[in-house]
Each structure stands twice: as structure tokens, then as C-alpha cells.
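so the lab meeting is tmrw and i was supposed to have these ready like two days ago... anyway. pasting both below. for each one the top line is the aa sequence and the line under it is the C-alpha cells. i havent really looked at them closely yet so no promises
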Amino acid sequence: MAETVISLKQVNIYQGQSLILKDVNFDINKGEFVYLVGKTGTGKSSLLKTLYGELKLTEGQASVVGFDLRLMDWKKVPYLRRNLGVVFQDFQLLTDRNVHENLKFVLKATGWKDERLIEEKINDVLDKVGLKSKGFKMPFEMSGGEQQRVDIARALLNSPKLILADEPTGNLDPETSDEIMQLLIQIAKDYGTTVVMATHDFIVINRYPSRMLKTEGGKVVDSANLMMA
């Protein structure tokens, strides 16, 4: 039986007092690649923020990588985030240090102490994203595509069951977008990592079709349900 990595049942998502998404229900299993699409302002970001613990869940039942989102508080959020990786559109790399030091900073911040294991892990994730020889480079010396690969390497550091990617191809040219898509799909396939990718890029979606969650009209529509209907 498939392992469920994300499960939402009768979830209502709020921003402040405003109800953004109502009665959200879906399960996502280990190794699945799922798009999250929707126009700006329809709740895509609010859903992502709920999944990684930035928005508190008050109504409904939800678990992400084994954590009950209803029980989340500021003390528990770091533990949730150690079990998932987040990939940002604007890379969010530390510009004053090289790639290796960027990755080392994250490992130290999440409790890694053994220098040998730290070095092994950094080499491992850079190898996975095809940047094995680029650890010495500063972010400004790298192309957008290479910086996005570093961002994905960073998301892989704690061997997460889940990667949440927020518009990872948003700032990239079509050819580089292709490379990043192939990398994310490969990670899902090879390592059984679940990937949820928020995107506006329908060229990418058409080229790499997969299950889709769409935010519209205060609801989340799941293409998996449409196929069964």
C-alpha cells in the first residue's frame, strides 16, 4: 500500500480572518509529482504556506510527513521543516558565501555536528543536482539555472520525504526550465521523494503532464478525481 505523505481532510485555510480555501480534501503519496496551479490570489501560496507550517491550521485534519498540522506551534515548525525541503523561485541563497558554505550553513542550523558527515552530505547533494565541481563558486558567479540547482540541493540536505517547490522555473529561460523539471521529476522517481510544484508555467505542464491540484473559486480541484469521474 502506498505511503501517504500529505493528507488533508475537510480543511479550511484562512489568511487572518478571511477564508481563502474551503473544504480542501486530497492525499498525496510517496514519490508522486503533483502540480499546484491557480491564478494569483486564488490561494496557491496560502496552501503551500499551510503545508510548511507558516500558516496555522485551525479547521479540518491535515498531516504532512507524519506531523499533525493542527498541533503545530512555533516550537514544532523547525522539526516539520527538517523533514521537507522548500525550493524558492528567487533562490534565496546567502550571497556572501560560496555554494559549499551555503549548504554547510543549513546543515549546522539543523543540528549537524560531525564535519566528515557534513562534507559527505554536501558532496552527495551537489552530485545529485549535477554540480559536483561547483561548490567553490559564489552565487553571483552562477547562472540562474545553476543557482536553482543549488536551491534544490539545499532542499535535499536532510533527505526529505517531501519537496515543496514554489515557482521553481519562474525566473528561468525555457531550456533551463526544462533541465530543472527533468531534475525534479528524476528526484521523485529515483529517491521516492514526493514533489509538489506550484507553477504558472503551462508550457512546462504540457511538456511534463502529471496530476494537478488547481485553486479556483475558494476550492481545490484535484485532476485525479476528475479522471475517476
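ok protien two:
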Amino acid sequence: MGSMQTTPEWKAAADEIWAMLRETARRQEETARQMKATDKRVGEITNRFGEMVEYMVIPNLLAKFSEFDFSFTKANRTEIADREHNIFAEVDAFLENGEKVMIVEIKTKPTVDDINDHIERMKKLRTYADLHNDKRAYLGAIAGVVFGESERIHALKKGFYVIEPSGDTFNIIEPKGNYYPHEW
């Protein structure tokens, strides 16, 4: 077999190919940086939008739930951090009175996973309540700006109240018919 000879043309072509590959790699890195920055900005906007929804919904929840004969006297955002029992939970809206508690999860666009996560949150909060001799009935609700039909049905099937926009305010849909409000 003969040896390959390097010609000036071959060398120039190889240099050009390597330069193109380096430029492609540089552009891919820049694109990845831009995508990461965009993802961060979208996440910040989504969080701000979620906060805005919480501030719009929470003040009106007491009045809206009174339409279902709930007389909640307090509504606030809360966080449970019980290291001793390893129970941690964030609650977007915690409505309460002497007999019942309503735990409201607020999402821009609730998913089935969000609803299932809320079930797990309800179980944790029930455990926490039991540990603190809180015998009140715990109920749940899911609030969303955009609710898909399958997510709405899933939430109702799981015994959650569904809160969604309606004009300048919002409506609450009670699980009824084949579905019943679940008490934890």
C-alpha cells in the first residue's frame, strides 16, 4: 500500500472542515446558553403569573365557598415543615374554621400529575393534623386558569372542588352526581 500524500489542496480542505466544525460547536453552545436563559425567563414569568393568580383568588375564596355553606373564617398561604415527622408541604390557600379545612392548590394549567400530587399533599396534611390532634375534616380544591376537560373530570373524580375563571371572577364546581367531595 502506498502512503498518502498531503497536498496543499487537501490541507486547505481539512483546515476548512475543522474550522466549520469548530464554528458549529460554538453555535451549538451559544444556542444551548440562549435556551437555558429563555427557560429561566419563562419559569420566572410562570411563577409570577401563578403568584398573581393566587393574589386574585385567595381574597375571594371565603365568599365563594360560603355559597356551598362553608363558613371559613381564615384564608392564607402556609407551609408545613415538620422535620421530626418528615412532613413538608406548601399550601397555596389554607381555608379554615372550627370544623373544616379546605386546602386549595392553585395552578396556571393543572395537569393530572398536579392533581395526583395534591392527593399526596392532602394525605401528608391529614397525617400532620392527626399528629397535632386536629380532628377537623380536610377537603381539597384545585384552582386553574386553564382547565382541560380531562383534568377537570379527574379532579372531580378524586373528590376535589374545581375552581376556574368566569368573567371577572371565578366559579367553583362541586364534585357531585357520581363524584363526592373527599374528606381526608
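from a quick look at the 2nd one: The helical segments are 8-66, 112-131, 149-157. Residues 8-66 form the longest helix (59 residues). will dig more after coffe
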